[in-house]
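Project outcomes to date are best conveyed with an example. Our students and postdoctoral researchers have been running inverse folding experiments weekly, and each run begins with a structure described purely in tokens. The record below, which covers 153 residues, was selected by the lab manager from last quarter's runs and is presented without edits.
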């Protein structure tokens, strides 16, 4: 069983990398959110729901404009958190087709500026990261470059 201490130890390993991004990966109901909320007790660490990374105004922009506007919108939300580390939960929201985003690429790029620990609903097979959405266990898949940036529950 993965504990908050396990996550803190792994964070120490990856927080100095260019991409300061750690994924807590597990199926629904495995305790990702509980762990992430618990980490919010760390000094300067803040919990946020992924849906709060994009304000209502963002979805009013044309679908084709959203990929270009997303980085500044997310950075603005993260800056307002005023946190050493931002704990992002329910990231599957960013995969909604209506948003027209490349969420993993977005998170990786943003993490160069804002350290992120992300709850990821899905699985990791040692080389690919899978997002589970609406019962589809392989709704999206991504090759993983840095295996140390993944903790599976």
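After processing, the design step wrote out the following sequence:
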């Amino acid at each position: 069983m993965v504990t908050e201490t396990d996550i803190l130890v792994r964070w120490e390993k990856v927080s100095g990398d260019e991409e300061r991004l750690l994924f807590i990966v597990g199926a629904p109901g495995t305790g990702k959110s509980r762990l992430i909320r618990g980490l919010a007790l760390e000094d300067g660490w803040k919990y946020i729901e992924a849906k709060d990374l994009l304000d209502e105004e963002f979805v009013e922009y044309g679908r084709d404009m959203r990929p270009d506007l997303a980085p500044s919108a997310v950075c603005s939300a993260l800056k307002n958190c005023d946190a050493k580390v931002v704990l992002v939960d329910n990231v599957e929201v960013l995969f909604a087709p209506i948003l027209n985003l490349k969420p993993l690429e977005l998170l990786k790029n943003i993490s160069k500026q804002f350290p992120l620990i992300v709850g990821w609903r899905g699985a990791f097979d040692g080389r690919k990261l899978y997002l589970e959405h609406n019962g589809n266990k392989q709704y999206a898949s991504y090759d993983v470059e840095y295996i140390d940036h993944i903790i599976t529950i």
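The domain at 4-152 is CATH 3.40.50 (Rossmann fold). The radius of gyration is 15 Å. The training component of this project remains on track.
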